[in-house]
């Protein structure tokens, strides 16, 4: 199962984050509108990610949510018939929460930099360093990114967007 090291943090200025990404030599991969439908599963997290292009993928992941830097094990399946699969998954497990976001993706070495505007939550940056067999390399690259983007401890989020939305819904 593939693995990555992740961090997520609140940011105020999306343009400033994009500027830093370009300054360090990250390559712009694209801008996407994504709808992530999370399902009520007992183990890990299962979400159907639908892109505005019509492309979709089913993503399962498991991670311990005990710190701001988190290792995540994941699997991704690209889909050709997401509408029917979504209907089936809704019938089987029900919808836990839906996350909608506009995401700009940059690639730097073996890291994905996501600059996100999440509906109902605000602006975030997320780093996913793909594990290449060397934990120290992943951790060093993560530290480099955190420093270059000048992220502060109080900006880090220890949970997923889905958890933040559920917390917000429960506060109402």
TrEMBL record:
Domain of life: Bacteria
Record-linked Pfam families: CYTH
Gene3D superfamilies, A to Z: Hypothetical Protein Pfu-838710-001
Domain CYTH, chain residue ranges per copy: 2-167
PROSITE patterns reported for this sequence: CYTH (PS51707)
InterPro entries, per database record: Adenylyl_cyclase_CyaB, CYTH-like_dom_sf, CYTH_domain
Descriptive protein name: Adenylyl cyclase CyaB, putative
């Amino acid at each position: 199962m593939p693995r990555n090291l992740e961090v997520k943090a609140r940011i105020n200025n999306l343009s400033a984050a994009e500027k830093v990404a370009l300054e360090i030599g990250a390559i712009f991969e694209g801008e996407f509108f994504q709808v992530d439908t999370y399902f009520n599963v007992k183990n890990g997290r299962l979400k159907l990610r639908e892109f505005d292009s019509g492309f979709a993928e089913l993503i399962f992941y498991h991670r311990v949510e005990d710190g701001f830097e988190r290792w995540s094990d994941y699997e991704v399946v690209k889909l050709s018939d997401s509408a029917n699969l979504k209907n089936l998954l809704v019938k089987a497990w029900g919808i836990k929460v839906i996350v909608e976001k506009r995401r700009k993706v940059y690639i730097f070495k073996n890291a994905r930099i996501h600059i996100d505007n999440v509906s109902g939550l605000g602006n975030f940056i997320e780093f996913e360093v793909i594990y290449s067999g060397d934990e120290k390399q992943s951790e060093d690259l993560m530290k480099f990114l955190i420093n270059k983007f000048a992220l502060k401890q109080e900006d880090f989020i220890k949970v997923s967007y889905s958890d933040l939305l559920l917390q917000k819904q429960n506060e109402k």
